[in-house]
Amino acid sequence: MHHTAESYNLTVSFRLSWVQHFKILFFLPVIFMGFHPVIIFLVNQIAILFQFWQHTEYIKKLPRIVEWLIVTPSNHRVHHGSNEKYLDKNFGVILLCWDKLFGTYQPEEEKVIYGITTKIDETVNPLYLNFHEYKDIAKDVKAAKRLQV
Q1: Where are the domains of the chain?
Q2: Which residues neighbour 95 within 8 Å (Cβ) at sequence distance 6 or greater?
Q3: HSE on the CB side for 8, CA within 13 Å?
Q4: pTM surpassing 0.85?
Q5: Residue 70, strand partner residues
Q6: Alpha-carbon torsion 31, 34, 39, 43, what sign?
Q7: Is 43 helix (H, G, I), strand (E, B) or coil?
């Protein structure tokens, strides 16, 4: 849902899936390790607020040291790109060290083409935008000859 936007502005940061709240399942181990749920909620909200300002084309490149350390609008634009060289890049939310560590960092080098790689026609239908990928996944699983990749 978030990545289907074909233009890039601050409203994209609010364009979230209706099923995004299932991610709480991934935080359960952290809660079971003893982290207080309120702390997890606060840290998550800070990360969401930090991500809001990244969804703009108005902020070009920031000073080199900033671009090297944190996820800036330039770095995050790459993450939203459907250009071949930008696919599966720049997953970090706040710090770039994770993408550099895992080899997924890509600086913005060419104009970003926004949206997903398979263009969709129903870009304003919220039901379709939220669930079209699940239908495609089910179709792929049904067509698979075996469970292994």
Answers
A1: 2-117
A2: 69, 70, 71
A3: 24
A4: no
A5: 95
A6: negative
A7: helix
